[in-house]
Amino acid sequence: MTVPTIKLNDGTSIPQFGLGVWQVPEDETEQVVSQALEVGYRHIDTAQMYQNEAGVGAALKTAGLAREDVYVTTKLNNSQHDPAKAKASLERSLLLLGLDHVDLFLIHWPLPTQYDGTYAKTWEALVGLREAGLTTSIGVSNFQPDHLDKIVAETGVAPAVNQIEVHPYFANEAARSATLAHGAKVESWSPLGQGGGELTDAVVAEIASAHGKSPAQVLLRWQIDRGDIVFPKSVRRERLEENLAIFDFELSAEQVAALAALDKGESGRSGPNPDTFDWIPSF
Ligand code: NAD
C-alpha cells in the first residue's frame, strides 16, 4: 500500500495515514509500534501526556529505519503550557524518543479557561523551537476558530496543522473550515469514533458491504478523500493491516454525502469540548 503524502504550508510533507498511540500502555507501546512499522506504517502520533514516548523510541531504534523515512509527532503536555517550559519539555521528549528532532510538535490543547492570556505566547515559543531545529513543523490541536485567529493575529504564523476530533457523527465543521481557511491541514483525531457507534451504523455497514470493505475502512477512506490526515489506533496486527488497506477503493459522491449526513453536531463528540476542557496533569 502506498500512503499518499500531504504538502503542508511550511513546504514539508506528511504521510496522510499513520498510527495513533493514545491509551496504548507504555509497556506495550514498543511491541505495538514495532508491529505497525513491520506492517508498513511510517507515521506515529504520540504525545507527552500519553506517557509512552519511550516505547515509541524503543520501537524506532529496533526498526533501524532511516530517520527521514518515519514521521514522528508529539504534543506539549498541558502542564508545560508556558513559553518558559516548552523547550525543556520538547528536549525531554527527544530524549525519550531517541531523536534529535521530531517532525511535528503540537500544542495539545488551548485550555482557554486556564491560559487565555498565554497560549499565543506558548505558540510563539514553538516558532522558536522550529527555528532551533528541534522540530521540523509546528502545529496545534483542539484549537477552535477563535483560538486560531488569536495565535495568527499575535504572531503572524499559521500552524501547519490543527489536530481536531472529526468523524462522521461529529463533523466539527466550524473548526475544520477555520483550519483550512488559515492554510493549515486538518488532522482528524478519533477517526473511528474511538471504536464507537459508527462502526455498527447501518449506513456505514451498507457502504462497506458494497465495496467488500469493513466499516472501519469506510470511515477512514471518507476522511482521506476529504484531504484530512488520519492515524487510527489499534494494538492488534490484523486491525493495523486492515486500517492501512484503504487505498484500493473509492467512495461514490452519494456515499460521501450519506456519510456526511450522519453528523450529530455537538452530541456526536466522543471527547471533551476544547472551550471548557481544563485538565492539567500532575506530571
Ligand atoms: P480511534 O477513533 O482511532 O479508535 C480506536 C479504537 O477503534 C480502538 O481502540 C479499537 O477499539 C477500535 N478499532 C481500531 N481499528 C478497528 C477496526 N479495524 N475495526 C474495528 N474496530 C477498530 O480512537 P483514538 O485512539 O481516540 O484516535 C486515534 C488517535 O488520534 C489517537 O491514538 C491519538 O494519536 C489521536 N488523538 C488525539 C487527541 C488530541 O487531543 N489531539 C485526542 C484523541 C485522539
TrEMBL record:
Binding, substrate: 108
GO molecular function: oxidoreductase activity, acting on the CH-OH group of donors, NAD or NADP as acceptor
Region span, Disordered: 264-283
EC number: 1.1.1.346
The entry's keywords: NADP, Oxidoreductase
One Pfam family matching this protein: Aldo_ket_red
Sites annotated Lowers pKa of active site Tyr: 75
Domain NADP-dependent oxidoreductase positions: 16-263
UniProt keyword Lipid metabolism, yes or no: no
Active-site residues, Swiss-Prot/TrEMBL: 50
InterPro entries in UniProt: AKR, Aldo/ket_reductase_CS, NAD(P)_OxRdtase_dom_sf, NADP_OxRdtase_dom
Gene3D superfamilies per the UniProt record, alphabetical: NADP-dependent oxidoreductase domain (3.20.20.100)
Family (UniProt): Belongs to the aldo/keto reductase family.
Protein name: 2,5-diketo-D-gluconate reductase A
Native source species: Nocardioides albus
